[in-house]
């Protein structure tokens, strides 16, 4: 089935064989794809550039130009070079495969085509392309943000240098300005001058003679009245004189001076003198104005720092925070007034990260900069991952004075990468497990039926004892295969609408009766309004039991086991952060313990089959992989929240259904029904299965025809159509598989009765789509009673 987005994915098929084209078109359109067709390489190149399909299925042997040349042209064109290309070929030469992969193809599918393989490979590469496209877009967005942040940093450094330059100039002006000393005698109105009069004003001392009147002549006309009024006030109040005003130099220019004078009294307490000094502050004021302008520019740049989404932090060499922008407030949750002055190591990191910080500071001291990924915590104790860039800032003397840190939140990006890699690994393991399980089921089926056949032939007690042991162990092996199939989502289930509270109630009764009393059981399920789900009660029962047993094992000295259920809505943000989730309504079932927790370094591996942390002989490693497979087969997903030393919570999310089914209970006859000479056609590519099945049917009064593949079956059915009552067809066969064989047989006889044989769920789904001719599915390994009961049921069906 098409597992992609709501919008149909477009597949371009390039093949000059009309038969192959029609088969692929029917298959892909049936599963929801939009199909485009090109009969040669030249047309394919043009059509791909115009239509930009999501994936191309490309035959190698074609006229005009072959598939290799077509692939080379597609990969040379920037418009089509990123479209995944899967070669379809009848050749099996490794050299040709390597050549095709070197040209840019992503995969090969070998003729004759297996429908399941075609769909699996197409869906796999479409998912990989979509995930890769998502990661690429996020990386581009992050790169743009980093570039903008770097530009802001560069502007900040430039303006910081400008501010330092103006500050240095200001200090130099103050040191070089000099001063004019004066002593004004009020009784004579004479003023005696000292200091750098000529250097500042350009006049010689004789040219300054004339007392206060001469000084008033030099003051700017607009400032004279103000100066005179201030002098009168000071003489009256006897306060210190302090005034800034403009005065004319000998060259005709005006400078601004600062006059600081002090009153001296005579013996009668009257003002006798005012002495003081005058400083040329013209350049000082100009420098001050320039500095204010520079500071304004710095403030403007600081405002830009608050616009960026990155967290920008400045801390001194003892980790005390000195600057904290708006981006830092949004990322960490602390306001600037809460963070400034605090120790960054204590505020942003857990204890286990402090050793790593020491190594960073060592590298920073040696090279002046560092960048990498850091694990930090927010005000709400939420763990985040940041891409961090550290730069050492020096003072005017080249000595380190502070550290500039820019942090970008990459938590979502890292989570998606981890889920993507985990999904790839689990999908590969699932494919391997499914293949192994299929072969084991084919091996176990004849063993199971042979044992039951021998039970009727060897009645002595010893033989019966050994046969019972053999049958028990075959069933154990079959159960193990069933677990593997659950992991790979290949097991058949009995799905119907379920009430979650009923399943939890059954689990509650079991754990309360069997678990140690040192473990307190808590159940939190709403009494009403809990949504229904669609699933297999037995499988979900096993999921919850597996998780409860793991929780028990994690609390060897007792603790609290909590089971809860609640309605849960997945929004677009949540779905984006969880690769298996889709927007919609779910029921969440939680299993919580207060046990040992799971270490971070192994939490991504716990769902792998045969991975276990338990002692040898105390666990198979299939419990959690079975949980994951069952939940995925129910279109749900699993979340794990764990804290070492505090406990673990498994969150099972299952999509809801709003209808209720009525259970159909079929009362079956306990005695094995015998035949009445009906002719049965058995189609299976396994010799042992055909032979044992034929023996059992003939032993129970049926006549049997056998075929090793679909082609033989069609020939036999065409010859004996009027006599054959039921066709027993294996779904997984070479050359012509079960569904194809059934479709051909239906064209010969639309009323044909068929029993499908398989142990894989995707075959079960395919059988549902084959119409009413397939009456039932017989899962491998099946027993003789399963075979006879299902056969009689189908024969009696009209």
Question: Rg from C-alpha positions?
Answer: 43 Å
Structural class: alpha/beta
Strand proportion, as a percent range, falls in 15-25%
Question: How many structural domains are formed by the residues?
Answer: 6
- Uncertain regions: pLDDT < 50 for 5+ in a row? 1-6, 170-177, 616-621, 658-670
The CATH homologous superfamily of the largest domain:
Histidine kinase-like ATPase, C-terminal domain
Q: Give the distance, in angstroms, between the N- and C-terminal Cα atoms.
A: 31 Å
How many individual helices?
A: 24
Q: Give a short account of the largest sheet.
A: 7 strands, mixed
Give an account of the 3D structure:
26% of the residues are buried. The chain has 798 residues and is of the alpha/beta class. It contains 24 helices and 27 strands. A hairpin with a 5-residue loop joins strand 9 and strand 10 (271-280). The protein has 6 domains: 10-113, Response regulator (Rossmann fold, 3-Layer(aba) Sandwich); 178-280, PAS domain (Beta-Lactamase); 311-409, 2-Layer Sandwich (Beta-Lactamase); 415-458 and 466-487; 496-657, Histidine kinase-like ATPase, C-terminal domain (Heat Shock Protein 90), CATH 3.30.565; 679-796, 3-Layer(aba) Sandwich (Rossmann fold). Helix 5 (115-176) runs antiparallel to helix 9 (282-307) and helix 5 (115-176) packs antiparallel against helix 14. The strands form 5 sheets. Strands 16, 17, 18, 19, 20, 21 and 22 form a 7-stranded mixed sheet that branches. Strands 2-1-3-4-5 form a 5-stranded parallel sheet, with helices on both faces. A 5-stranded antiparallel sheet has the order 7-6-10-9-8.
């Amino acid at each position: 089935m098409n597992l992609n987005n709501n919008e149909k994915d477009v597949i371009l098929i390039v093949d000059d064989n009309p038969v192959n084209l029609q088969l692929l078109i029917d298959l892909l359109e049936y599963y929801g794809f939009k199909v485009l067709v090109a009969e040669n390489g030249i047309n394919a190149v043009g059509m791909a550039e115009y239509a930009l399909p999501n994936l191309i299925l490309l035959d190698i042997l074609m006229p005009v130009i072959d598939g290799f040349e077509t692939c080379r042209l597609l990969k040379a064109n920037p418009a089509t070079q990123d479209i995944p290309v899967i070669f379809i070929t009848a050749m099996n030469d490794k050299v040709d495969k390597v050549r095709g992969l070197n040209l840019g193809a992503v995969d090969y599918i070998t003729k004759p085509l297996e429908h399941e393989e075609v769909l699996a490979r197409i869906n796999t590469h479409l998912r990989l392309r979509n995930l890769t496209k998502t990661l690429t877009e996020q990386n581009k967005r992050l790169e743009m943000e980093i570039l903008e942040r770097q530009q802001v940093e560069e502007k900040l450094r430039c303006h910081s240098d400008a501010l330092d330059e103006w500050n240095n100039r200001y200090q130099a002006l103050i040191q070089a300005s000099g001063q004019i000393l004066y002593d004004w005698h009020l009784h004579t109105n004479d003023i005696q001058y000292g200091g750098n009069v000529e250097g500042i004003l350009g006049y010689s001392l004789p040219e300054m003679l004339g007392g206060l009147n001469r000084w008033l002549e030099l003051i700017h006309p607009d400032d004279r009245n103000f100066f005179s009024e201030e002098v009168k006030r000071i003489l009256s109040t006897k306060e210190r004189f302090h005034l800034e005003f403009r005065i004319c130099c000998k060259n005709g220019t005006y400078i601004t001076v600062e006059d600081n004078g002090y009153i001296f009294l005579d013996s009668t307490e009257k003002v006798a003198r005012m002495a003081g000094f005058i400083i040329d502050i013209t350049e000082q004021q100009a420098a001050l104005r320039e500095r204010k302008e520079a500071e304004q520019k710095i403030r403007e740049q600081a405002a830009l720092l608050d616009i960026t989404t990155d967290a920008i932090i400045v801390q001194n060499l003892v980790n005390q925070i000195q600057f904290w922008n708006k981006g830092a407030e949004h990322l960490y949750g602390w306001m600037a007034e809460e963070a400034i002055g605090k120790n960054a190591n204590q505020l942003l990191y857990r204890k286990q990260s402090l050793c790593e910080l020491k190594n960073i500071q060592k590298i920073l001291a040696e090279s002046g900069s560092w960048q990498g990924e850091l694990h930090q915590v927010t005000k709400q104790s939420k763990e985040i991952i940041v891409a961090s860039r550290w730069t050492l800032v020096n003072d005017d003397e080249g000595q380190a004075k502070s550290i500039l840190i820019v942090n970008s939140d990459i938590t979502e990006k890292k989570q998606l990468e981890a889920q993507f890699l985990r999904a790839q690994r689990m999908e590969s393991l699932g494919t391997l497990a499914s293949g192994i399980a299929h072969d084991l089921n084919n091996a176990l089926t004849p063993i199971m039926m042979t044992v039951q056949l021998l039970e009727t032939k060897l009645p002595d007690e010893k033989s019966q004892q050994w046969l019972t042991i053999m049958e028990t162990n075959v069933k154990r092996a079959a159960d193990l295969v069933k677990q593997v199939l659950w992991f790979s989502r290949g097991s058949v289930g009995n799905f119907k609408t379920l009430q979650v509270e009923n399943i939890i109630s059954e689990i509650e009764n079991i754990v309360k009766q069997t678990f140690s009393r040192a473990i307190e059981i808590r159940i939190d399920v709403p009494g009403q309004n809990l949504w229904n789900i669609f699933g297999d009660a037995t499988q979900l029962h096993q999921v919850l039991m597996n998780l409860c047993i793991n929780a028990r094992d994690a609390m060897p000295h007792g603790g609290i086991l909590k089971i809860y259920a609640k309605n849960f809505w997945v929004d677009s943000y949540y779905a984006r952060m969880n690769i298996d989730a889709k927007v919609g309504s779910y029921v969440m079932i939680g299993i919580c313990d207060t046990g040992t927790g799971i270490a971070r370094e192994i939490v991504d591996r716990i769902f792998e089959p045969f991975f276990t942390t338990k002692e040898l002989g105390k666990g198979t490693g299939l419990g959690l992989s079975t949980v994951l497979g069952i939940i995925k087969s129910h279109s749900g997903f699993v979340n794990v929240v764990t804290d070492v030393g505090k406990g673990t919570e498994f969150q099972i999310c299952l999509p809801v259904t709003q209808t209720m089914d009525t259970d159909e209970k079929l009362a079956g006859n306990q005695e094995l029904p015998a035949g009445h000479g009906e002719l049965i056609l058995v189609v299976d590519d396994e010799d042992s299965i055909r032979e044992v099945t034929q023996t059992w049917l003939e032993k129970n009064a049926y006549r049997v025809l056998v075929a090793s593949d679909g082609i033989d079956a069609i020939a036999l059915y065409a010859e004996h159509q009027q006599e054959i009552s039921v066709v027993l067809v294996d779904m997984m066969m070479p050359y012509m598989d079960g569904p194809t064989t059934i479709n051909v047989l239906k064209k010969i006889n639309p009323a044909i009765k068929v029993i499908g044989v398989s142990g894989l769920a995707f075959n079960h789904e395919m059988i549902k789509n084959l119409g009413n001719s397939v009456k039932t599915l017989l899962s491998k390994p099946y027993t003789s009673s399963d075979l006879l009961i299902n056969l009689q049921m189908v024969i009696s069906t009209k």
